[in-house]
Design goal:
By secondary structure, this protein is of the alpha/beta class. 30% of the residues lie in helices and 17% in strands. The strands form 2 sheets. The protein has a 7-stranded mixed sheet with strand order 3-9-8-4-7-6-5. The protein has a two-stranded antiparallel sheet with strand order 1-2.
Amino acid sequence: MKESIDQKILDIIYSDDFRLSDLKPSDWAEENRVMTSDVSPYPGPFKYNRTPYLKEVVNLLMPDNPATRIAIMKGAQIGSSTGLIENGIGWIMSQNPTNILLAARDEGMVKDMMDSKIDQMIDSCDLRKLIRPNVMRAKNQRTGDTSMKKEFSGGSLKAYSIQKPGRMRQVSAQIGFLDDFEAAPSDKDAGAAYGLFQTRFAAYGDRAKVFMISTPEVKQT
């Protein structure tokens, strides 16, 4: 009983450990991230000089920026996964922690993104120390670091397939990175994907920010 009470006290303390910052995401990434050869053809300190067009986009994450819904139609292999999604998640975890929803084309792709690129970002930016479970599991097992979820003080990162929005019905997040949005089911399909995605952020009102990112595949869509 005492251990349970002590744990609840610790959870309350850690949940209030907000690291609110006025440091821009682009500046944070250049100060902290180091790329390795397994995730980038350009290993070494990350710099936006290769993708300067992404600085303005990632800086939309700043709380004082009024943008709430950001649709990005882009070409392939222009660095958005690294310069926007990965660096954006790292900045949130480090500077302005909150709940994040990450979606990609299918479960295999989003799992690979989490296991390789997101984990590399976490380790290269020395953020592993922030990863901690927010809830005590059965038999006192605390699992805050998995292939589809990262829990940290003040928030969490949860990953899903964008083709199965129904699995997100119980998710509430402030920040969303919806990659490969072209692959989401159309509104003709059960669940009306676009509307369902938007409701995942409704609790945060105009403080929510959702990035809908895609390389167009079919002209009509």
